Amino acid sequence: MAERALFVDPRRGGARCGVSGGEDWGAAVLTAVLSGNPPSQSERIAKSSVEDPPARPLARSRSATSQAQEAGRDAGLSSQPLWTVKEPRIVNTNTDAWSESSEIRQFPWISSAIQVTLGRFQFINLGVKLPKSEIHYRPVLLARTGERQGLQDLTDDDHERFTPIFVAPPRAWNFQTETMDKTLPQHLEKLPAEFGKARRGRDAYIDLCFLTEDLSLVDGIHPLQWLYEHSLKEGVSLIPIVSANSPGDLIAAARDLHSAEDMGVCLRLLPAEWPSADPKAFKELLDELGVGPSDVDLVLDLGEDTATHLTLRALAPEIVWARTNGSWRSLTVAGAGMPAPKDLPGKGINVLERTDWLTYRQVSSFSASSGIEAPDYSDYGVANYDPVLEVDPRMMNISATFRYTTHEVWLFGRGDLFKGNGGRGLGGAAVAPMLSKLRAHTLYSETTRDLANDWIDAVVDQGASGGQPTVWRRWATYHHIKTVLSQLSR
User: Fold this and answer.
1) Quick check: is 103 in a domain?
2) Are strands 330-334 and 265-269 parallel, antiparallel or unpaired?
3) pLDDT for 377-394, tens place per residue?
4) Is position 395 within any domain?
5) What is the value of pTM for the model shown?
6) Which of 132, 138, 306, 314 is most buried as measured by Cβ atoms within 10 A of its Cβ?
7) 15: DSSP letter
8) Are strands 409-419 and 348-353 parallel, antiparallel or unpaired?
9) Closest CA to 164 of 172, 154, 174
10) What is the residue range of 65's domain?
11) How many domains does the chain have?
């Protein structure tokens, strides 16, 4: 007999399911939850006993969905729908209170006084360790100065374990002249050299999704071809990224590049574009690109939808579909857990759940329990899903902020006004007090010390410059990548 117990920690905003009968039962619970069948419990959340399932892995001859359904029946689980969480909850350590802005629904089978959030629903005896095989990291990084400089400080060993998905930033709008600030050639001209500094002779992906409204020729060739040729001179081979919604000329340029250079392609697809929804259209896209599965890095991108029950329920069968419908060069699950700027909390040191990472851990455990290879991991670094700000920079107020990655959460520090309209703001003097409070947080020392910690110490203790937003993003990105690589190596 195995004993199961569901208990809720309202202080941490979540529920945990403990199992004392070994990992097999825990795997059955996870597959059942991913198929939408959470444990059935009385309203007072009491312990109950169930028969241990046979001590064998789930049969590989059945689909993951049928495995999940059978596992749920074997474990005596109900068919009630899983809860939904629109956004992660946020706790402000100044007020010690959870935000009420998140859309959180209650379990129908728990006391109505208790609320939970998906990010904290973990299965203790599943063994949250990732599979033993090496997991490759493919962070989606907007190719701005701060992100690129963050990569320059990483070691050669770090660079071997991840491949950045560089997203060419959108062209800036000049609110005074009401025109684009730069032409497309001017916008792209420095990127190849910067890619060379950031990657030091290694491959990277390139996504032009923010430039598709104007992909006019640069020096007589397509911008994708231009970026590839000039980046190659800097020692970086760029792998083109397209999606089902890419314009025809970008798809044609990616096809021509693969035909000439045998680079393959990366398909970065949002949920509406995932292959199993329309296998015929997906096959037509592969044919149009002139590639087969072995030429394709397939990225299932959740976008900003990383914390709902639909996330897990949709990912599980999609991963099974991908693993059984072609030998892809790689398969990656991506998502952006950082809230949009308008949803970030106010002054203080705030705790934000890394829902992209927590979701990936559950997906990885599901893969292991289903006998399939786990996908690789991707996130958006410390950035949110949509980087476009349609605001006149002259009218923006900028507070001193820092995004610090720990094992399961970000510590988001917000200090005094750094720069305000009309010349207001403290400038660099606003940074040190915020970083001092960040450093004092109990979770700050949870991760391995690195160069970002040295920079923070220099600002707080030695009066070094606190920099400006580009510097903050540089060290936040660097520390995030170091932390993720450490987590994936465990």
Assistant:
1) yes
2) unpaired
3) 999 999 998 876 655 556
4) no
5) 0.74
6) 306
7) E
8) antiparallel
9) 154
10) 2-126
11) 1
